[in-house]
Structures
1.
Amino acid sequence: MTGIRRVHIAIRGAVQGVGFRPFVYRLATDLHLTGWVMNSSQGVFAEAEGDPAAVEQFLLRVEREKPPRSFIQSLEYMFLDPAGFSSFEIRASDQQGERSTLVLP
């Protein structure tokens, strides 16, 4: 899979209950990326892969264009080997572990 880049991101802060997963989904699909996004008790996690320039845009725009009611306390990412995702999906929430993210009313 030459020319494909994959990134895993962990976003913590007020990122639940504000439309963050649909926002990430729309951004990734607009950039023709594949992967997934999900909520967890630790924040929002996502993996996106595709054209390296699109992955870079994804990282920049997640923070710059976030939903208005959200607040990003931290955004950490690491690059991984491509996984060969066929589409981008919103995965079911994983609420295991101690809650360490803010949820807005």
2.
Amino acid sequence: MAKKENEIVSYEAILKDIARKKKGVFSISRTLPAYLILLFMLFLSFFIYYNFEQKVKSDNTAAFEKAISSVMTRFEVGYNNHLQIATSIRGLYDNLVQVVRDYLLLYASVPTKTYKSILGIMSVQKVPRYRLTEFIYYVQGQGYYDYSIHPFVEKNVYYPVEFIVPEDVNKHLRGLDISSVERLKNWFQLAIERGEPTATNVFPFRGNDTLSLFLIFPVYDRSFAINSAKERREAFKSAVLMEIDVPTFFKQSLGAGVPSDTSIIFYCYQKDNDLQETRLFSSANISLLNSDFKPILSQIREFNFLDKKLYIFFATIPNFGGSFQKYLPLVALGVSILLSLVFFGLIISITTSRARAIDLAERMTRSQRRILESTKDIIAVLGFDGSWKTMNPASISVLGYEPVELIGKKIDILFANAKDLNDFYSSFNNQNSEFTRKVDYLMKTKSGEERWINWSFTFSPQDSLIYAIGRDITLEKMAEIEERIKAKQTILAEQISREASEFKSYFMTKFSHQLRNALTTISGYHQILAEKKYENDDEMRTYLDLAINETQELLSSSTDLFDVAGFGTGSKILGTVNVYNVMNEALVIFQKKNSDKKILLKFDEGSQSVTVASERDELRKAFETLYNALINGLQTLELQVQIAESRAEAIVEIQILASANELVSKMIVLHNENLNNLIEAVRYDVDDILLNLALFGSMIRMLNGQVKFDTLGEDGNFVSIILPKSQ
């Protein structure tokens, strides 16, 4: 017996022994548990397949919905902008007794130049036949000397276009009787009777090459009741119409596009009836929809222009989500079945012989090696000194390095900036227990290209090793960065818009004061001349009377202009403000928000008592913004402040010299080179420095001040502020 045991010592001997005992080894009693486990594993494999399939469908649906939402959101923003413009112009008719040509030009010219989709903003009047001659004479008096109503047909009421903006390309529509346009008059009457804004169907109003949609805003005489359709027809006096080029509107709203736009196909259409529809706009890749493929996902969304419904059909592109993702459930099923068979083989091996167990172990080792070599993620090990110990082949596709080129070298060569490198080494200093840290770093490939890598570092002090898994997330990171840039551009654009509104109100008020004073003086001189006695000088008297009348009319117009400007929104109520106190108040608030940073304010002698005409809270917020910009990248900042007043010029000049800061210096240079294009320059901003500088400048200008930034290199950064002196 002992001799027999000594014979079974080699792999070949084991195989021979298994072959000799094969019948007993594979008996039902021995292998039944393995087969039961195999059935369970196969069931589990199909369960995994089903879940993977549902997960892929769910991910595709989520990506599809996100792409749709991105498109719909931009359409909604475009629509809201157009509606706001139309509503604002409609509001003129509530605030003014009569809207003259100049007012319509003032409020409508900028929107029509800004939005190419707005073909025209027009004022349409209700003109009874008995007032027709008076109306034509009035419009001709506004500067339209060739104004006439067309097509002219004898009837009780006309609805002519009174004014239209832009004027140069719409001269042929001036005087057009809206009630004579077949595809427009019914919608026009409907808007009158309903008493609320109405949108028309899309139709070729200007010809077959243009698809137009009108937004109609009726205006009623307030002295009439408008409770019924009949009362509204009688009370109607005018309307504001906005003509929108629908294809241009959709193209303009989409803008330059986002990455998700390329993953879907869409087109917008109008239902003419139950059987016919008119296509209004299509995405650039609409030709894909005509090819022989069936989208895996499609959806129809409604898009409303007021009460007018348009429809947008969305569909996925071929290979939506990636061709690999399409087969991912099958791959998961295959891998699961493979693992089930492997596990089944493992059980069989355990219940049969040592040789089968050894063979299975070798095959599993090979499988794991293949997985390690085929994955697209970096799987590697580093020492605590940052040198690579192992590296899988994913480094070729992700970083451009062969594994052998990295092993033995430090990770330092891959970092794109020193900030991330310092963060990596400081993260595991003085750590005594194992922990995992996930972080995104900007890395350099062998060719010098920059890529964002999401790292999962497991630091093991016990092994003195760092286990690393890295995934390329460059596309996701760039999309995230682009979103942040757009958000900052939006903030700056809104601030500049508020600044423009403040400037308009200030300009109109100042202009009206000057004009009224000048005209009052002229009128006084004319009165003096008119009271002199001339013998047989009737003609001189006649001319003087005419001059007096004309001057009084101009004076009346300037007074009205003053009243309008005086009630403009956005005007600041300025008071006497101590600059020294406000700067210190802003510093206290800044320090509360940024306890890890410190700013030292040093004022020159005599600066403590200087006051300006300003708005205290707005000025304080402005200085908070300036502090945020100047201290960026530093822990401590010193500001030398000199405040001087000029009584002759009625101004106060504030000069601030900040400690040297290379990052801020670069942003000041960028700011000064792009004064007329700051919104686009924000794209190159670093840590919001340029954004805060631009916001500060705008906030000071809104307080009737001026700002100048300059960099003195190693001597620091200089800010000059001029504000009006308090009276």
3.
Amino acid sequence: MSAASAAVVAATAATVTFRNPISPQSSILHDVLEINIEWGIGRDESASRSATGLRVRRVVAMTKQLWLDSIAADGARIAAIAPASLGLPVPSCPGWTVRDGVVHTAGAHRWATAFLQAGADSKERFVPDVSDVPDGDAVLQWYAGVNAALLDELRRHEPDEPARAFIGRTVAAFWMRRMTQEVSIHRWDLQNSLPGGAEALPAWTAADGITELTQMQIPLIVGKKGLPDALVGKVIVIEATDTGDRWTLRLRADGIDVLDESVPADVTLRGAASDLDLVLWRRTEPGTVDLVGDRTVLDGLLDVVII
């Protein structure tokens, strides 16, 4: 674990052991993400005054801008969808039309905005509010406004500022990352429905998405549902060839451990970060990446989490 990560006091989480899974090539960025997002953890006060703490704060500001730029760019791509395409089906989200995907993504933006506006001490449980969605083609301009309102709210907050989310008390960076991933994946879903197909996810966005999946989404679901005995103790390694990132996961009955040491893998996935992220989100088949070892281990985990 890096010096920056060692300056962290972690809150107890029953479903996952948090460690830094990231390779040296991108360790600074992901150390910052680890510090600021893991289930409402806080930095040790003496460490925050050190040179390391100053470097961390600088990179936090850079990371915030990357998140916001990504939300804006993918939001603009959604808003630019041709109105004639709104009725097309979305293959990666059965039952949806493109219009449904636009409305869903707007609802997620409204949800995040409501949590952030309410503050860290709010106990209210919000639901996505899309009651004002207009009919017809106007949904695209409406979505653009909802996306802009989310960005305005996110700009008001520092990444390590206390906040609340559906997981409980956390920090504003949680929502910056969560909305980056939400709009990125659904932008891909909607573009993939169009004749021209979808652009790949940006490499850094996809790598950050895999980190979120392995540190929050998958552990949260596995912690609630559990894993079959046949999967317990199995090791999955994920290697992004374009970013140099590596994630090593050991499966438990009630969660996963994200390991920072190298251990033998039962199955290894290797490919571009975008391709890996899309496989883990069940948007594409595992055959789109290089897979070595026992595929049933990966399939078994994904069948449980069904993200």
